[in-house]
Structure to design on (588 residues):
């Protein structure tokens, strides 16, 4: 088993009717579901009744998907304020499962699912797995964390819906991951892209790549670049697929990319995407970058209206080369809250990664950004790992490398950076979401 | 037989105790240090050593996740007489070979100047033609015994 070239790829669909539905039919389906959902939350979730009453919007005002702009927004803070079960639209007895976000600051955010919500989640992930060329005969090695984090369970539910074998490894212990991957003959694996790079490097180092039977990997939960994709694909000789999701909406499986890698197809029959201008929340046209906002059209447990993800992207409603009509969201250019303003310039960690990878060697694409303020001036320090192959005992050569990295980053970011070279493999590889920025400024 | 010897070069981040860690790994694996030079920059240090068993040292460090490499260098035999090093260096300059860095150690009979050059073979040729000797690997790795 190995990587399949685009020319030889045979597209398969799990639900061709939905995935290739005409825009009119999809709008009709979305309208029907939205009308029902709005009525449901108005009657069953006091938070939404209050919000809609404040805006002077009644369920009867929502006649179709085109009226979505009349509805109130939901924010992460709203979820925290109603933690844990304040936004349920069903009694707690109907809840079959809860999942939560990593919650790096303060309280975690909890999402609650009825059995039907769990089934829909699995179905959406399964659509993605089929899009990645997998069938019920495949063995899916899941090295996302299991637990409250949705990664592990999401892939597991997808494998279950597909009828494939799930190998519930959870995160960590790379040696053991590789041993099981080889012994069980996994044909696909799922984890964060940074961990996928780490696993691929470890497999190559252990000399076991040829003994693996992998053909695909499903990687998400953090932004990654085309260069990282190429690295994983080249080392392991597989196809890789990007999966997106967030626990508030359902978990991984909200959107997945196809072999053409021209954006992630959103399962808009369940999760209606809007792209809104971050400044005034007005709708963006296709191709314009804005904040991604989701409405869960059919969720029972904890339905959300216009949930603001803070992820920045653009959308494309044109029909994809794979035949799907599901709109595609582009790679995130960042998060509204990850973005750092350094000396007035907007800097996203992903730009640093892309710039490092574009150098084609010398340094590894692992980095840490440290923002300080010295004498009222922002100072951005980028810690990068020296690639073992390029390590030199001559300080002049290392200093040349450092200067080159500095120049490339300045060009990419539009702001001068201090480069600090660190030893290979010393920057933490993440098994969850990688922490890439430390901001020491007291603002 | 190649007359270059192998130097163990280690990239050291400027972190507390990092040098100590490296030296401890070598000590535990019974790798003896014959000569040592530590260059420092604002960010990192470069530790260069002549040791009893360079390959063993490199492997031991790698196992501990420390970045080390082996570099071919020339160990010039410098007689204990004023002006010896100056004379040798003059020959190298005349031969138009670039020296990247150098450090010296002295044990017993003669001193040794460890030279890193882009063209170590030529350095050896120049030195030998002008009457200087170089240490063989075996001699250099055991120069302190």
């Amino acid at each position: 088993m190995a990587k399949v070239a685009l020319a030889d790829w045979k597209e398969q669909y799990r639900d061709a009717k939905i995935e290739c539905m005409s825009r009119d039919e999809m709008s009709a389906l979305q309208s029907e579901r939205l009308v029902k959902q709005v009525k449901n939350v108005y009657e069953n979730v006091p938070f939404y009744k209050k919000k809609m009453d404040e805006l002077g919007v009644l369920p009867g005002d929502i006649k179709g998907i085109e009226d979505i702009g009349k509805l109130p927004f939901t924010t992460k803070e709203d979820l925290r304020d109603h933690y844990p079960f304040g936004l349920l639209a069903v009694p707690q007895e109907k809840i079959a499962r809860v999942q939560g976000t990593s919650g790096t600051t303060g309280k975690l955010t909890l999402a609650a699912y009825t059995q039907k919500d769990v089934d829909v989640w699995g179905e959406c992930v399964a659509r993605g797995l089929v899009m990645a060329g997998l069938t019920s005969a495949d063995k899916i090695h899941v090295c996302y964390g299991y637990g409250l984090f949705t990664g592990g369970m999401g892939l597991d539910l997808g494998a279950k819906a597909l009828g494939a074998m799930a190998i519930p490894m959870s995160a960590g212990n790379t040696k053991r991951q590789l041993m099981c991957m080889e012994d069980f003959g996994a044909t696909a694996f799922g984890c964060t892209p940074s961990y996928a790079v780490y696993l691929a490097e470890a497999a190559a180092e252990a000399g076991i790549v040829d003994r693996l039977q992998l053909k695909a990997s499903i990687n998400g939960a953090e932004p990654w670049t085309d260069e990282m994709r190429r690295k994983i694909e080249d080392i392991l000789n597989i196809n890789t697929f990007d999966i997106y999701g967030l626990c508030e909406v359902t978990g991984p499986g909200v959107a997945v990319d196809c072999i053409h890698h021209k954006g992630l197809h959103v399962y808009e029959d369940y999760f209606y995407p809007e792209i809104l201008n971050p400044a005034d929340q007005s709708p963006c046209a296709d191709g314009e970058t804005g904040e991604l906002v989701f409405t869960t059209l059919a969720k029972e447990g904890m339905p959300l209206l216009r949930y603001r993800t803070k992820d920045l992207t653009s959308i494309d409603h044109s029909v994809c080369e794979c035949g799907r009509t599901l709109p595609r969201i582009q790679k995130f250019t960042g998060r509204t809250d990850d973005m750092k303003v350094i000396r007035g310039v907007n800097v996203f960690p992903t730009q640093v990664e892309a710039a490092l990878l574009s150098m084609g060697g010398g340094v590894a694409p692992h980095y840490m950004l440290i923002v300080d303020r010295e004498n009222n001036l922002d100072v951005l320090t980028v810690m990068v790992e020296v690639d073992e192959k390029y390590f030199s005992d001559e300080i002049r050569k290392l200093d040349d490398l450092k200067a080159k990295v500095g120049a490339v980053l300045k060009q990419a970011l539009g702001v001068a950076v201090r480069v600090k070279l660190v030893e290979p493999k010393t920057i933490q590889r993440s098994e969850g979401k990688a922490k890439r920025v430390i901001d020491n400024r007291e603002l | 037989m190649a007359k270059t010897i192998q130097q163990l070069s280690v990239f050291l981040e400027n972190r507390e105790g990092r040098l100590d860690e490296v030296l401890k790994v070598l000590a535990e694996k019974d790798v003896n240090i014959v000569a040592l030079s530590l260059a420092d920059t604002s960010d990192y240090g470069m530790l260069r050593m002549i040791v009893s068993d360079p390959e063993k040292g490199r492997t031991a460090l790698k196992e501990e996740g420390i970045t080390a490499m082996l570099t071919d260098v020339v160990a010039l035999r410098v007689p204990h007489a004023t002006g010896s090093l100056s004379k040798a260096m003059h020959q190298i300059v005349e031969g138009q070979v670039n020296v990247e860095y150098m450090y010296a150690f002295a044990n017993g009979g003669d001193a040794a100047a460890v030279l890193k050059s882009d063209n170590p073979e030529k350095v050896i040729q120049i030195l030998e033609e002008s009457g200087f000797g170089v240490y063989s690997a075996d001699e250099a790795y055991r120069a302190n015994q």
Summary: Chain A has two domains: 6-24+94-335, 340-439. The first helix of chain A runs from residue 16 to 19.
